[in-house]
Design brief:
The protein has 13 helices and no strands. It has 316 residues and is an all-alpha fold. The chain has a single domain, classed as ABC transporter involved in vitamin B12 uptake, BtuC (Orthogonal Bundle). The longest helix has 36 residues. The protein is globular, with a radius of gyration of 20 Å.
């Protein structure tokens, strides 16, 4: 698995994505586009493409960081309750700050996502039985508890429909003016790249990291802040995308090992390629209608997840 294959694949999938849609735009039309076609590209197709790529890169790197810091290959924003806490934060922002801007909702979702992830890490430190499968199951139960709280308040304030819109990831509503929040994931990804070596050392354990002179708590907190920031931006803009942060880092680690500095670029490219492929598949399988990205990623991702579980059990 090499960058020289993943990058050309990303370019090809990006070109294919731009020319798929109900309004037909052929590659040959690119040099003599009508005004309507230009507006479609600038308002819908390109914002959607940017959102897919940034979401794929961001969520994959989130999973990579969480798996390294927790030393468990089945931990991700999906299985650690981070996404569920971000949704609860969005719900709280709707109830308390009903007319707030997107940046305020993003801030509230970020605070809840960070707090939820810290609680999960605290639970993790108290677990004596560090079985590979047991820890993500605890995270899933924790996420379901948070989800139940969200559903209760959504019913109470008649916001269940608003909550449901964030339960299902979907790129069909991505338009110019509604996706710019995704740009916040770019500096977070760059910071993750700069701290990659520290995350690798932190993943070796607190005592070992401190012996090497690493400020362990600081490195962990930076990683969790980046995960919360990226997750809240994706959930607020697109919705939940299951399994992405779980399966992509696992696939990369099989071929590239656990050194984050060496695998972070491949993880980012593979995540973007995978999400683009799932989006294209969802747009053509029942054309001209569209299957939500959460469904296509969920189906393919769950199959890969089962394989990884069986693979982990066989090695255990």
């Amino acid at each position: 698995m090499r960058k020289r294959y993943l990058l050309p694949l990303l370019i090809v999938l990006s070109v294919v994505s731009v020319f798929i849609g109900v309004e037909e735009i052929k590659p040959g039309d690119i040099f003599h586009l009508t005004r309507e076609q230009v507006e479609i590209l600038l308002i819908s197709r390109l914002p959607r493409l940017i959102s897919i790529i940034t979401a794929g890169i961001g969520m994959s790197i989130c999973g990579l960081i969480m798996q390294q810091l927790t030393r468990n290959k089945f931990v991700s924003p999906t299985t650690a309750g981070t996404m569920d806490c971000a949704r609860l934060g969005i719900l709280v922002s709707i109830i308390v700050f009903s007319s707030a801007s997107m940046i305020v909702k993003m801030g509230v979702a970020f605070c809840f996502a960070l707090a939820g992830t810290l609680v999960f890490m605290k639970i993790l430190s108290r677990i004596k039985w560090n079985d590979t499968i047991f820890i993500p199951l605890v995270g899933i139960m924790f996420g379901n508890i948070i989800g139940s709280v969200s559903t209760f308040f959504a019913y109470k304030y008649d916001l269940i429909q608003s909550l449901s819109s964030w339960l299902q990831g979907d790129f069909s509503g991505i338009l110019k003016g509604r996706y710019e929040m995704m740009y916040m994931t770019v500096p977070a990804v760059l910071i993750a790249y700069l701290f990659a070596n520290q995350f690798t050392v932190a993943g070796m354990g607190e005592d070992f990291a401190k012996n090497l002179g690493l400020k362990y708590k600081q490195a962990v907190n930076i990683g969790l802040i980046l995960v919360a920031l990226i997750t809240s931006a994706v959930v607020l803009t697109i919705g939940s995308i299951p399994f992405l942060g779980l399966i992509i880092p696992n696939i990369v680690s099989i071929y590239r090992g656990d050194h984050i500095k060496k695998s972070i670029t491949v993880t980012a490219l593979l995540g973007a390629d995978f999400l683009l492929f799932c989006d294209i598949l969802g747009r053509v399988v029942i054309y001209p209608y569209e299957v939500p990205i959460s469904l296509t990623v969920g189906i393919i991702g769950s199959a890969i997840f089962v394989y990884l579980l069986l693979r982990g059990r066989s090695y255990a």
